[in-house]
Amino acid sequence: MAQAMVARTRGRRRWRAVAALRAGLVGVALILCGSGGAMAEGPLRVLLNWSPTSMFAAFYVAEDRGLYAKAGIAVALEHQGQSGGTLESSPFDLAVLSPGELIAARARGMKLKAVAALCQRSPIVFVSKAEYGITRPAQIVGQTVRTTAEMTPILNALLAGEGLAPGSWTPATFASDPALFLDSPARVWGVYSTGLAQQLSAAGHAINVIYPEDYGLGLNGSVVVVREDLLAAEHARVKAFVTATLDGLELAIETPDLAVAGTLARDPATRSGTERDRFLGAIPLFRGRGRSLGAMDAQTWANALAVAAQAGVATQAIQPADLFTTELLP
Asked: What is the pLDDT of residue 22?
């Protein structure tokens, strides 16, 4: 994907730190459920749902360039891929989750709410060799499809939205590998646009790509969520964090080398070329449909609820308004 040209916009606003969080943890379960548990003193604890990657450049650049410090807040980043932590086992104030993870957490009783879309567009797409001529969801019916637990409900929601039977295809499991794609009994593959799809295109392979959003199933890729008790008690502090994080993302988009450097600083084993390509490919996901960074809307969350229902999550008591707020966006 071509790198988006992004103009420098808003200046950095300074924020004063608000009062420190009042008391120690009463218990992880009480905190996660927003049931009045005490706040923790110290930095905002941010749980990132993967290992270090340039997809988290917003946080790295905001930290490395001093944007959090200028806003008067301290931040502690934790990568789930390194710590093995989960929502239940890792005390946190904010986190990066997929929409599906947020909905599942709410269905379990966790009082969490999205305050910004990190990726406004989902990277999940469905690809096939161009020679197969598969260009529409209806042509997936009856096919063998390489998919994952995350991708399966998206595909079923896509088919349902087209008036087709969910599950009218045969699932298959393969590693995300270009060689396997080229010699596979599965004619359709669910993949990440920033991963295998990008690799195949870069290698010159002709592929067709089905984007769910082209068929009315627009989804956020990942979102920044906050505990509702923290949002209520420390509104200004959380707003300062969101503003600094989005400023960090804008800086990274303007200067992708900052995204790569931030990733390497947190995991020297990562490959700079791979992370640069991943970040450049993700720029259209960060700033989706020409909107401001972080933007969210009710229809996209309604789509996410439809996907979660296909995954068997009890969504009946959850409304889009329960899942997000735009009040903290610049």
From this structure: 28
End-to-end CA distance of the chain: 27
pLDDT at 290: 77
- Greatest Cα-to-Cα distance within the chain, rounded to the nearest angstrom: 62
What does the pLDDT look like over 223-241, one tens digit per residue? 999 999 999 999 999 999 9
CA atoms within 13 A on the CB side of 185: 6
Distance between alpha carbon 302 and the CA centroid of its chain, in Å? 16
CATH class assigned to 28-121+220-323: alpha beta
Q: Can you give the pLDDT at residue 294? A: 97
Q: Cα(324)–Cα(148) distance, rounded to whole angstroms?
A: 26
Q: What architecture does CATH give domain 124-215?
A: 3-Layer(aba) Sandwich (3.40)
Closest CA to 140 of 121, 156, 122: 156
Map tokens 């889009």 to a residue: 320
Domain ranges in the chain? 28-121+220-323, 124-215
Give the model's pLDDT for residue 41.
57
Three-class SS of residue 192? strand
**Which letter, b or e, does each residue of 211-243 get, where b requires 16 or more Cβ atoms within 10 Å of its Cβ?**
ebbeeebbbbbbbbbbbbbbbeebeebbbbbbb
Cα distances from 330 to residues 94, 99, 118, 196, 313, in angstroms, run 18, 21, 14, 34, 32
Contact 110, 86 (CB under 8 A): no
Q: Same CATH topology for 28-121+220-323 and 124-215?
A: yes
- CA-closest candidate to residue 16, choices 244, 242, 237, 226: 237
At residue 89, the pLDDT reads 83
CA 283 to chain centre: 13
Handedness of CA 228, 293, 246, 59 (dihedral sign): positive
Which pTM was predicted? 0.84
Low-confidence ranges of the chain (pLDDT < 70): 1-41
